[in-house]
Amino acid sequence: MLTSTKNIFPSFSTELVKEIETNAVIQSFETDTVIIRTGQYIKNTVLVISGKIKVYREDENGGEFFMYHLQPGQACAISMICATKNEKSQIMAKVVEDVELIMVPLPLMDKWMMQHRSWYEFVIDTYRSRFEEVLEVIDNIAFRAMDERLEFYLKRHAEVCGCKELKLSHQEIATELNTSREVISRLLKKMEQRGLVTLYRNNIELLK
Amino acid sequence: MLTSTKNIFPSFSTELVKEIETNAVIQSFETDTVIIRTGQYIKNTVLVISGKIKVYREDENGGEFFMYHLQPGQACAISMICATKNEKSQIMAKVVEDVELIMVPLPLMDKWMMQHRSWYEFVIDTYRSRFEEVLEVIDNIAFRAMDERLEFYLKRHAEVCGCKELKLSHQEIATELNTSREVISRLLKKMEQRGLVTLYRNNIELLK
DNA sequence: GATATAAAGTGACAATTGTTACATTGGTAC
DNA sequence: GTACCAATGTAACAATTGTCACTTTATATC
Fold first, then answer.
1. Which end of chain A has fewer surrounding CB within 10 Å, N or C?
2. Which nucleotides of D are covered by protein (CB under 7 A)?
3. Domain A1-115, what architecture?
4. What region holds the Cyclic nucleotide-binding domain (chains A, B) (predicted)?
């Protein structure tokens, strides 16, 4: 596991990797597991070794608005932020591809900031990249109509899965964009007519 | 200025306040000044001593979507994040009430993280509170219709100005919510009919 | 007071999005 | 094959939001 930690987090110093190895716990979760719920107290900072996670913002009526993916080599910025203050989670995170996670207990997160330059830089960089990603999400919902938002959504998913075949149902997309299935079906049909996608059952092929 | 710094940032240690006093530059800007533009390189971390700032996300077509206020005792999280990597600004910040700012040069921002526990905690707390604020913005545009978003917008402005009389034109609100003036006029009229506000020229009085 | 101007009001209509209700299709289990 | 079910298609309509054109009102200036 040590060598793989070093591979997945190449910026970490050898001492930091050792610290992680001796102190942090590795946990595995299967696809569809909800790792963190809105309102739950966060006791660990989460680093992704393998697999994929989707992070959502929830509302009172059961809406699940998709914000961003977490992939190997990345960390949950929210878990860092909340961990330092022992606050409740503001987000919900769901496994979309079986994951192995490094769970760093709250006090270590803070301690390492002072002791390990590479940890400090990793944390700051995580804040930065997540903040930027969230700002991009704001761009989309503030400035763009649903057709463009859908295209952006599909592109992001294609990037993350590294393929052009998206195994998503219309309902799933609708839920994550907080709209209705009919709207998504309608817009996808238009995209198909424009030659951007080919539609199958539970499968959308991106053509461009 | 030293004593006032300590008053406005009470969590800062005496040594940190001294460091700020000797190293940081104080700058004043008048209302309506744009302090930071999208795409501009950020060379300082900005702390607010007095006055008020509004932070916006811009799009290519001139849209200015309002995100949050910065008030005395607060710092611009984006300027911290960008400063550490010498990155371009992702936001635009405009003075809405004459401000005095402490400009902390980029290298110090980083250095103090290791040397001053109170600085470290301030920075982390700034990240946390801004991230939470941005998530709340996402809630509003992702889950709520324009009428609710307008109410939320007015409430936030009332909180910040500490009064019930908002000196805002319909056009200004429309721009900051990325909609049209007519839509805002329409929704404000409905709010007036519901007894939530009284409308004047360049002035909206909140009744509840 | 007359005039100019920015702000706000308004009605009509278009476009987008949301909702309802139901039909069709593809895949799975029997 | 048949039955069943989830996914998708679709039409009709409602609601919200966006746009256009124009009017009215408040305020400042002359």
1. C
2. 6-12, 16-21, 26-27
3. Sandwich (2.60)
4. 8-74
